[in-house]
Amino acid sequence: MRYISTRGGMEPASFSEVLIEGLAPDGGLVVPATMPTIAREQLESWRRLDYPSLAAEVLGMFATDIPRPDLQAMTARAYSTDKFANEAIVPVTPIDDRVSLLGLSEGPTLAFKDMAMQFLGEAVEYVLQRKGGTLNIVGATSGDTGSAAEYAFRDKDSVAVFMLSPQGRMSDFQRAQMYSLTEPTIHNIAMEGVFDDAQNHLKALAGDLDFKRRYRIGAVNSINLGRVTAQTVYYVWAYLRLTDELSREQRESFEFSVTVPSGNFGNILAGHFAKSMGVPVRRLVLASNENNVLDEFFRTGVYRPRTSENTYLTSSPSMDISKASNLERFIFDLVGRDGLRLREAWAILDASGELDFSDHKDALRETYGFVSGSSTHDDRVATIRETFEDHGVLIDPHTADGVKVAREHLEDGVPMLVLETAKPAKFREIVVEATGEEPEIPEHLRYLLSAEQRVVEMTNDERALRNYIAEHALL
Ligand SMILES: *Cc1c(COP(=O)(O)O)cnc(C)c1O
């Protein structure tokens, strides 16, 4: 399997070569040259596999340059019960007879980012060991990416992490998780501004090839290819678990829909990959909060990213994103995987601030299966309350955005799965507001809230950031 750029300007490369980047040298995003496909019989042959073994099979379709036994060893370490609280790694929990949760938050930082990042930690270490050298990961987080990256790399000697977070925009628990780490290779940088400001600095650094080479900079943001591919695994897992009890004939015609609480379009992009590969997903339901740029796109066909001043601070903060980096990979498919057309579209976007695909509006739904919706703080509170009081299931505000929008897109005979993107313990305030109950913090994490915190504060200034990295990079 070779990888190319959405903008057509990159020599095809292998999985190991593009793993750390995601961003192609021509400014596009790396995508598979052709999407691998999974035949029905092959899907069936995976039914008895546990999660790590299934992950090795699915990732093996993307990482064809890594020998299968090595991949199997990596997924076994990444998805072990040492790190995941649930025996199944990814449990399926019914809320009622139409809607179930796919439990993606059993990992060390209680959010779905662990699903991808745990694999990436193993894969990056594997590639570095073969190639020699070190890596300095520079990332930006709106909350959950940062801790997932730091927990995935804290024990990797050849990797340092520099994580930018927007000052005062994360929950107490999220802050405690990140800032309590004491490894000298972990650098937390609290920056003025919002997530998109931090992301803009990263883009500037990524464009400075000299700086990047000199300080061995890599990225693990949500455009990272290793993350997207690792996320396709649980869509395959979901299909298998939903059909375990069905007869052979029932399986032939089975379809399910998935609702994905979305921000940077990474998680749902993996769903689009899985659907393209042949997993029988009927609808990919995109759920957004008040920052509803993507909901607007899938309803109207017009993509109009917003500036950071126009990005609201909400009670589902990991979705407070108004410029969805990964959308380019989907648009690449939408324009017939034509790099030239994609470049033209992005030139229009850069010049006018808007992309008009309203003449593709029907294809978004009928060909690609995308529908969408959004919610408000009051919706989240009502959904958390109702899901708890009526069904005894406690959910976090992002998953609540998902459950609310999922209920607007139910179809007879089509099971609906909502991706549980975080545990309620990470967002206690809104959970208490909705239910009057304190969300339970797992035993092994209780010390966190009172642990000493270590963080560097920085103004919204790229030079300061460069200086800090130059001084602390692992070379
Ligand atoms: C990252 C995150 C999201 C958004 O996922 P994307 O891949 O950026 O669309 C939603 N919910 C939670 C809890 C997250 O951490």
Automatic annotation (TrEMBL):
Keywords: Lyase, Pyridoxal phosphate. Residues 107-337 form the Tryptophan synthase beta chain-like PALP domain. It is an enzyme of class 4 (lyase). Its EC number is 4.2.3.1. The keyword Oxidoreductase does not apply. Its cofactor is pyridoxal 5'-phosphate. GO terms for biological process: threonine biosynthetic process. The modification N6-(pyridoxal phosphate)lysine is found at K113. Residues 2-79 form the Threonine synthase N-terminal domain. GO terms for molecular function: threonine synthase activity. Belongs to the threonine synthase family. This is Threonine synthase.
